[in-house]
Specification:
Length: 215
């Protein structure tokens, strides 16, 4: 069995994909502006993520679960995303996704991209409709950082062998916990505090940073 040489964990919305999934759900439900405004404040670090998520999910109460499949064609991988994952696998890295979004869409994206691990939120659905509530543990900044640590431990890796990529305030703790933390087309609060940054929408540039670090 090949020894795992590293682990990269990344955020999904506005990182792996170009869109914010919950904003698309909001648009499909006719609540676009309301939901997007809460998303933006949470990303900037102005609102507690858990509270902001609960508020947005509550607004979706009574919507049909068909919205989740309706938005799938409107989710697009960020340029370089699939090439990055393929290259990391060639280098014997594992790749994980940690998302404040929802398993219902994130699992399908992970499958398409060939990702090894996924952690996301789960919407409560009853009789084909969203209840406005979530099930189980909420993916907060602490959970994102904890997942990075547990997946590293599972593969007998030290934190110095881990890489984290994200764009919002909810990713900051994970970026600081990883050996290499990369702010990707990130909000100002994240750009200021991350060790590395990519300001161009090309995820393959993560490889340039890894090559530089390992030189």
């Amino acid at each position: 069995m090949t020894k795992v040489k590293g682990l990269l964990v990344m955020d999904v919305d506005s990182t792996l994909i170009q869109e914010e999934g919950i904003d698309l759900l909001g648009q499909a439900a006719g609540l676009g502006e309301k939901i997007a405004a809460i998303t933006e404040r949470a990303m900037q670090g102005e609102l507690d993520f858990k509270q902001a998520l609960a508020e947005r999910v509550a607004l979706l109460k009574g919507q049909p679960d068909s919205l989740l499949t309706e938005i799938l064609p409107r989710l697009h991988f960020t340029p370089g995303a699939e090439a990055l994952i393929a290259e990391l696998h060639k280098r014997d890295y594992k790749v994980g996704l940690v998302s404040g979004g929802f398993h219902e869409t994130v699992d399908l994206l992970a499958q398409r991209a060939g990702v090894d691990y996924v952690m996301a939120n789960r919407l409560e659905i009853k009789d084909g409709f969203l209840t406005g509530r979530l099930l189980g543990e909420i993916v907060t900044k602490d959970i994102k950082a904890a997942k990075l640590c547990s997946w590293a431990a599972e593969n007998k890796l030290t934190l110095s062998q881990t890489v984290a990529v994200g764009d919002g305030a909810n990713d900051l703790l994970m970026l600081k916990t990883a050996g290499v933390g990369i702010a990707f087309c990130a909000k100002p609060i994240v750009r200021e505090q991350a060790s590395y940054r990519i300001d161009e929408a090309d995820l393959y540039k993560v490889i340039d940073i890894l090559d530089e670090v390992n030189r």
